[in-house]
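Proteins fold. Shown next:

***
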Amino acid sequence: MIKRISASLPLKRLTWCLLVLVCVAAIKTFKQYYSNILSLQKWESWTINSQRLVLNHEQPRNASIIFIGGHQSTGTGLMRILLDVHPLIRCGPEPIITWEIMNFRKSMKAYMNKLEAAGVTSRVIDEATAGFIVSVVENMGPPAERLCHKQPGIYYYLRELGDLFHEAKFIHMIRDGRASVLSTITRKVDSQFTADKPVEAIKLWENITRQMIDDCKYIGAKRCLTVRYECLVLEPEVQLRRILIWRRVQYSLSSQYI
């Protein structure tokens, strides 16, 4: 009798081991199945979102991108981060290349006679430029209902951007000239601003800022909004609500946890 019991023990252990292995395999299979469902739902969600994107591949000039810019050291980076926290907005870092394409577009004016003779009219160049910028902004990050582009220097072409993108919105950041110039010199982001010529640096800041203000007025208050850096720092929620109301986007509490 004792021999029978001792002989059956390995069999029972083997049975229990098999049951445990089956349970583990079933759990793993369920997890994989559940993970696949979540991935599919996420992909479907992204597909829906991509269909709801503000971009229009057939008409890129109607893309309602949010452009953030202004003079150097005016808080464009802070504004980008505050908007990027919003669940409906994706606002990535400076793409850099979009400024270069605007510089290139400007340089083409010297060859317009030859270009038009070849059939490359100003309209063709504008469509290509807008399409390039839209493609960069869209593909540099995940899909979102609202896409934004941040680059201070591109606002040298603020008026041109307003003409290129009929549905775009523009946030013009302004900061006290003394603080802006000091930060620009300290960080060495623009060789035109040097510590040995502070008066010239302030005058240059004023000329650039005045031009951007004029360009913002040209675009119109419905599409171009001026935001003071100091106000954004002191009252971030007030300014964010103001911006989101202007952009017709609901305020999100996630912005409070920055």
Remarks:
- Confidence is low (pLDDT under 50) at residues 1-7, 36-54.
- The first strand starts at residue 66 and ends at 70.
- The beta strands are 66-70, 89-91, 146-150, 169-174, 224-228.
